[in-house]
Amino acid sequence: MGVLASMEKQGYEQVVFNYDRVSGLRAIIAIHDTTLGPALGGVRMWPYKSEEEALTDALRLARGMTYKSAAMGLNLGGGKAVIIGDPRTDKSEELFRAFGMFVETLKGRYITAEDVGTTTDDMDIIKGYTEHVVGLSGTSGNPSPVTAFGCFRAMQACAKYVFGEESLAGRKVVIQGVGNVGYYLAKQLLEAGAQVYVADLYTDRTERAAELGARVIPCDDVFDQECDIFAPCALGGVINDETVERLRARIVCGSANNQLLEDRHAEKLADRDILYAPDFVVNGGGLINVSFELAPGGYDREQALAKVSRIYDILLKVFQIAEERGIGTAEAADRLAEERIRKALEQNRIYRPSA
Fold first, then answer.
1. CATH fold of the domain at 3-63+77-127
2. Domains 3-63+77-127 and 144-285+311-339 share a fold
3. pLDDT per residue over 276-324, tens digit each?
4. 144-285+311-339: which CATH topology?
5. Mutual orientation of helices 120-127 and 93-104 as an angle, nearest 10°?
6. Which of 39, 189, 284, 326 is 20 to 30 A from 180, comparing alpha carbons?
7. Residue 256 — left, alpha, or beta (φ > 0 → left; ψ -120 to 50 → alpha)?
8. Catalytic residue (one of 9, 49, 68, 80)
9. Taking the domains of the chain in order of start, what are their residue ranges?
10. 93 with 126: CB under 8 angstroms?
């Protein structure tokens, strides 16, 4: 399927391809929907195997941001950017300078932020060339601890729904990926008395988590561990035809985007009596946090954390919708987000004279 055909089918508004010969920047910015407001979404840097793979990731992530913003009750649309390159070896000041310039050409339709492979330092460089960037070191800073907090609150909601109590003390949690978010999630879980098992491709990350008290397991063993909660906190597509049959968890609740390789895998989880916590609800904390930089009064961490804590209530509402309508939790989360977008779109017909 061609790019324009994909955009038409999934309702995308704009896809921008960017190249800079000085820095070698190769980036894609995807804007999915701006019904609720400007498209906000991080810029991911990853060594994609092909341009097609990068485009697919950008499109899926942008759509996820639309649903995430809507479900979190934010007046923001969905967008995402990807930079093709290895964040460990290919970063440069020139690279992010060029990216900032390209973001500026969109005049606020897209607001960028930190994501996998990028940092607050990178955002500070971008800030020199556009105002349309959040997640800066002098304001909300690194969103990872707040994303982890939202994921922790989501796990408490899942525990309440499945086990009848929200306490995670004594619960066995397997975390796949202990980069920024996974590390802070492990820390919060251990402090809550959970048994935490971790796996990651990079040994320096697992060693850091082990220092907290987490137990390290091989990457391929995460799906075969009998546990209360399996937490995908790396990249997407980890729930697929092979892994869904191997899972021995009672709950899937993690911070990774697009955990289901295909929508039908949500049904497969339900068939195996595994509760799926929709990822764009679980990982909404980082978006909420950076969105407060756009508030009229400026960033307020206490207010941001209070709103992130409400992910607990949002997730329980998703489970309630699923029960009442006889649908899966993934579909219920979609309906929750789509309803808010639909209502906003219908109210846009109201004429509002300019000042």
1. Rossmann fold (3.40.50)
2. yes
3. 999 999 999 999 999 999 988 889 999 999 999 999 999 999 999 999 9
4. Rossmann fold (3.40.50)
5. 60
6. 39
7. beta
8. 80
9. 3-63+77-127, 144-285+311-339
10. no
Short-list 196, 172, 26, 15, CA closest to 95: 26
The Cα 53–Cα 45 span in angstroms is 13
Report percent pLDDT > 90 for the chain: 87
What is the Cβ-side half-sphere exposure of residue 110, based on CA atoms within 13 angstroms?
A: 28
Q: Is 127 a catalytic residue?
A: no
CA distances from 137 to 66, 92, 134, 248, 326 (A): 25, 18, 9, 40, 45
Rounded to 10 degrees, what is the CA torsion of 60, 63, 64, 68?
170
Q: Is it the case that residue 12 has pLDDT exceeding 90?
A: yes
Residues 6+ apart with CB under 8 A from 305: 146, 149, 289
Distance CA(49)–CA(323), nearest Å, equals 41
Report the alpha-carbon distance of residue 227 to residue 172 in Å, rounded.
5
